[in-house]
Every structure is written in C-alpha cells, then in structure tokens.
Specification:
With 227 residues, the chain is α+β, with helices and mostly antiparallel strands. The protein is built from three helices and eleven strands; from the N terminus they run H-E-H-E-E-H-E-E-E-E-E-E-E-E. 19% of the residues lie in helices and 24% in strands. The protein is globular, with a radius of gyration of 17 Å. Keywords: Dioxygenase, Iron, Metal-binding, Oxidoreductase, Vitamin C.
C-alpha cells in the first residue's frame, strides 16, 4: 500500500489569516488525486465544531441516502449513517465554511477546476454502522468534483474502526491506496469522480464533516442548487 501524499506543510494551518500556501494541496490533487492532512484547522475551531455537533438533537439528523433530488433513495445495505446539513447559522460552522471558501478559491487559481460552491453536513456513525464502497460522483452525471472529510472523533483508537478506505480509480486495481484513520482534526481531500471509497464498520460513535466542492451545472439563469 502506498502512503498517502505528504508534505511538511500539511500539518500547519491555512485559511483566512494563515500564511501557508495551498500549493502542496493543489500539487497532491494534480499528481495523485487525493491528500491526507493531519491537522489543517485550528484546535479551537475543531472543538467548537464538535460541541455544536453534539448539541444537536439526534432527532434532527436524518438517515443518509444515495443520490440527489429525485434520484435520492435510502439503502440500508449500502450506508447506515445519519446526517445533518450545515449552513452559516452557527459561528463555528461559519468559520469552517470560510476556511473552505479559501480552499475553493485557492484550488481554482491553481487547478482551474471551476469550483462554484461547497456543501457539507455532519455525518454521525453509531456503533455497527458503515458505508459500502461507492463513488461520490459519476463522470458527467453530477456536479461534485472534490470531496472532503474532516474528522471530529476525539481520542480515536484502532479498535474503534470507521477508517476511510480509498481505492484506485476503476480499472486500476483493487488494493486500497490508503486507509485514513478518523483521528480528531485529520482531513482527507480527493477527486469525487475518480476514487471509490468506503467507511469500515464503526465500533464507537464517529463524528465527521463531509463536504463537496461543486461546479455549476445550471442552464441559463437557473442556478444548480446544492444537494
């Protein structure tokens, strides 16, 4: 198994007010299609996100499905997590979305991806839940281009399960490229149309923020809506 793309700059924070370049992230996406960042966000923001996550009544979460809009359907064989869509109404989430906006602009400048906006949700995996191998997007069939997963599970241990397993593009082999441990503060970024991936069975509650940078597939003046 090849190690995930890595640079010395990964462990440092970037974003509004940060001095680090986004070049290493863009370079990894260009060369490898994915990157794992050990700690790209400030600990205080991570803590605030986790507190907000845990403060939300579980009844407000909904079972995650497959597909979008009229193609959306529940499939408990494929995935069993629960989700809560995010907006700027919470200060911590607003700060995170500001960070994501900096990343969006930086990737557009460096990779000319035409990323239009970013949508994200909290993902809650209880004991025994999982997400089978899948793609976040299919070529020509969706507007999700870059996927992100930010982990908020404190004190994760290997026996807790819930690793993200990223596989090579279809036709390039079945051996995993990387297993990403859901350690608190770690983030995976990868091309949505290229890499099948799965979440292994969780043995302890797992918290994360899952998101996608999208291109605009609008026609005329009709803006393509998120999710």
């Amino acid at each position: 198994m090849n190690p995930p793309p890595s640079t010395a700059a990964e462990a440092r924070e970037f974003g509004p007010g940060g001095g680090d370049s986004l070049d290493p992230i863009a370079a990894a996406l260009r060369e490898h299609g994915y990157i794992v960042l050990p700690s790209p966000l400030p600990p205080a923001l991570l803590g605030a996100l986790l507190r907000h996550f845990k403060s939300i009544d579980r009844e407000r979460f909904r079972r995650a499905g497959i597909g979008r809009d009229e193609d959306h359907q529940l499939n408990r064989f494929v995935r069993t997590d629960e989700i809560f869509w995010l907006d700027k109404s919470n200060p911590a989430v607003s700060a995170y979305l500001g960070w994501a906006e900096t990343l969006r602009l930086g990737l557009n400048r460096r990779l000319f991806l035409g990323l239009f906006d970013y949508e994200c949700h909290y993902a809650y995996y209880d004991r025994g839940t999982y997400y089978k191998k899948h793609l976040d997007a299919f070529k020509g069939g969706t507007n999700r281009v870059v996927s992100t997963v930010l982990y908020l599970t404190p004190n994760w241990q290997p026996q807790d399960g819930g690793e993200l397993v990223i596989y090579p593009p279809e036709g390039s082999g079945e051996e995993p490229l990387v297993r990403v441990a859901p350690r608190f503060g770690q983030m995976a970024i990868f091309l949505s149309e290229e890499f099948p991936h799965e979440v292994l069975t969780v043995h302890r509650p797992r918290y994360s923020v899952t998101g996608w940078f999208r291109v605009n597939n609008s026609l005329g003046e009709n803006i393509d809506p998120a999710r």
